[in-house]
Specification:
Layout: E1 6-10, H1 16-24, E2 28-32, H2 36-43, H3 54-63, E3 65-68, E4 79-82, H4 97-107, E5 115-118, H5 126-139, E6 148-151, E7 170-172, H6 177-188, E8 195-197, H7 201-232, H8 236-243, H9 265-275, H10 282-291, H11 293-307, E9 316-320, H12 336-345, E10 349-353, H13 359-366, E11 380-383, H14 395-398, E12 405-408, E13 420-421
Parallel strand pairs: 1-2, 1-4, 2-3, 4-5, 5-6, 7-8, 9-10, 9-11, 11-12, 12-13
């Protein structure tokens, strides 16, 4: 099939768009997204995620890449790659609705011999146990007889200009040995770092789940250290710098753990484990520590205010940054909201400033009006996200007098500037 690949990418976000661009340089590719605003933006040569190689996208659109939100355009393709979000619900259980709706949609267009590849992060078994039945029902075709599946977990790191799609080794898999070979060969066409062919779809799914669960647990360890060392009056970052002089010490830093991967994926793995009768201890304890860090920061700030004699109710606070990580516009599952909510409950008037975030997105997702400019003075300033643009702010101008508090959650600012840091 290699010479006749006709590929559809479902979902043009952080994962799907770079994929569509790279495949579009070589093949007939349709980038599909249900959001007409997103499609219009891309057709105009813009990308609000800041992840796309815009020159590469322009080049791909001259070759084989088309972009659409018209469902009827999905006809006539033979490779369908699904990259839609897989969030959690308010009960912290997997929300598979976007994934299953995408499966139902493309099932209507499946033909004999077609391959459906999933890149969305899921728990082990999800592709074959949850998605395949939807594909079968929607298409009327039979799995591994009429159509086939693959799984190749995304490894996009938003904001990273060095480790990009093509330079990160790609895990691949397929529903039969022959399809596994074909899926692997497909990705080898665009991944310069090479591929790793997993022995089964379930192994590939599990590999993605544990990548982020491992990082989550490691960060929860240093976050717990931060809670302990705070009681001892020790700076956690000083301890880490000292320990990191040993060659095999892993230099994780304390902080807020949000986003659509690290803050979500461990719940997928825990969900599957509990469905099989095992209640994970380490994974969920790490999640509990990380989920409480926003509250810890807010309470630490309140204690600093009390120590300086501030009246808490009515004090004005500024939170710098709201995205889940530095230098990117993604606010999905940002744990900065925990700091905001806790301070609001104490009676503070809280402003949020983030030059990377679209104000309309902030209002829609969190109901918060973003500041357009920093033209006020504050009793408390919290550096929540280490955007490069925050390095050179005039913090003295933002402080409401000499006793105003600056708290740094990222050990990003000069220590002489801050009253406390995580």
């Amino acid at each position: 099939m290699a010479s006749s690949y006709k590929i559809v990418i479902i979902g043009l976000g952080y994962v799907g768009l770079p994929l569509a661009i790279e495949f579009g340089k070589q093949y007939d590719v349709l980038g599909f997204d249900i959001d007409p605003k997103r499609v219009t933006e891309l057709l105009n040569g813009k990308d609000s995620t800041n992840e796309a190689d815009l020159a590469g996208m322009k080049d791909a659109m001259k070759k084989g890449l088309k972009i659409s939100n018209n469902v009827n355009d999905l006809k006539g393709y033979n490779i369908y790659i699904i990259t839609v979000p897989t969030p959690i619900n308010k009960f912290k259980a997997p929300d598979l609705r976007p994934l299953l709706k995408a499966s139902e949609m493309i099932g209507q267009f499946l033909k004999k011999g077609d391959i459906v590849i999933y890149e969305s992060t899921v728990y082990p078994g999800c592709t074959e146990e949850d998605c395949v039945p939807v594909l079968e029902q929607s298409s009327g075709l039979q799995f591994n007889i009429d159509f086939y599946c693959g799984y190749s977990p995304e490894r996009i790191n938003p904001g990273d200009r060095i480790n990009t799609l093509t330079t990160i080794k790609k895990v691949t898999s397929g529903s039969t040995p022959e399809i596994a070979d074909e899926v692997d060969a497909l990705y080898k066409k665009i991944i310069t770092a090479g591929t790793h062919k997993a022995p089964s779809i379930k192994v590939a799914e599990a590999s993605k789940a544990i990548e982020n669960a491992q990082r989550d647990v490691n960060i929860s360890f240093v976050n717990e250290l931060a809670l302990i060392f705070d009681r001892m009056g020790i700076d956690t970052n000083d301890v880490i710098e000292a320990a990191a002089t040993k060659w095999n010490f892993l230099k994780y830093k304390p902080g807020l753990v949000g986003g659509h991967c690290i803050g979500v994926d461990p719940y997928y793995l825990a969900y599957k484990a509990e469905a099989l009768g095992y209640h994970p201890q380490v994974i969920l304890s790490g999640r509990r520590v990380n989920d409480n860090m926003g509250m810890f920061v807010a309470n630490k700030v309140i204690k600093l205010m009390i120590r300086k004699g501030y009246k808490i109710d009515g004090a004005r606070a500024l939170i710098l940054g709201f995205t889940f990580k530095e230098n990117c516009p993604d606010i999905r599952n940002s744990r900065v909201i925990d700091i905001y909510n806790e301070l609001m409950q104490f009676g503070l008037m809280v402003d949020v400033f983030d030059p990377y975030v679209e104000p309309a997105d902030m209002k829609t997702q969190y109901g918060i009006e973003l500041l357009e400019a920093l033209d006020r003075k504050y009793d408390v300033i919290i550096l929540a996200v280490a955007h490069d643009k925050f390095k050179d702010l005039d913090y003295a101008r933002l402080k409401n007098g000499p006793k105003a508090i600056i708290y740094d959650t990222k050990a990003f600012l000069d220590r002489e500037l801050v009253d406390g840091r995580l």
